[in-house]
Amino acid sequence: MWKPNQPGSTTPQAPEPTRPSSVPSTFETATARPSVPSASAPAPVPSGDQATIGKSLIVKGELSGSESLYIDGKVEGAINLPGNRVTVGRNGQVAANILAREVVVLGKVRGNIQASDRVDIRSEGSLTGDVQAARISIEDGAFFKGGIDIRKPGSEPTRSTATPEPVIVEA
């Protein structure tokens, strides 16, 4: 056992780190260095992966995948993210049917929403369409026009959120 009073013994010292030369190694160039966040950069999302559709982007067609989605631009078509969250930001304009675990509406949505967990329409949000969800929250000031179908969690969803067939009325 080492004792500090023994003659000839010294305390162990950590080796001095090597200083980088003026030319960075391949490891240093491949390693991402943390950057200082700017005032215009969005805050990082604390949980999992999240894709973002920015203000200036317009997407037409079907979106599907296995990560959460934040929409601040325009989307037309269908959004199919069954196990994830879809957030329509304040600038977001969505004309699509949405299938997700959770949907948060801060912008404008025209279309039906089918959520396995919940739908949250915030005070500045607008939703025109039918909702199928286990839970729904509509804040004061939010706009909602449509029907609500509360489903027990784990129940088999119906496919009523698909685009309805046109109805022909004869005069």
UniProtKB/TrEMBL annotation:
<feature type="region of interest" description="Disordered">
    <location>
        <begin position="1"/>
        <end position="51"/>
    </location>
</feature>
<feature type="compositionally biased region" description="Low complexity">
    <location>
        <begin position="29"/>
        <end position="42"/>
    </location>
</feature>
<feature type="region of interest" description="Disordered">
    <location>
        <begin position="148"/>
        <end position="171"/>
    </location>
</feature>
<feature type="compositionally biased region" description="Polar residues">
    <location>
        <begin position="1"/>
        <end position="28"/>
    </location>
</feature>
<dbReference type="Pfam" id="PF04519">
    <property type="entry name" value="Bactofilin"/>
</dbReference>
<dbReference type="InterPro" id="IPR007607">
    <property type="entry name" value="BacA/B"/>
</dbReference>
<protein>
    <submittedName>
        <fullName>Protein CcmA, bactofilin family</fullName>
    </submittedName>
</protein>
<comment type="similarity">
    <text>Belongs to the bactofilin family.</text>
</comment>
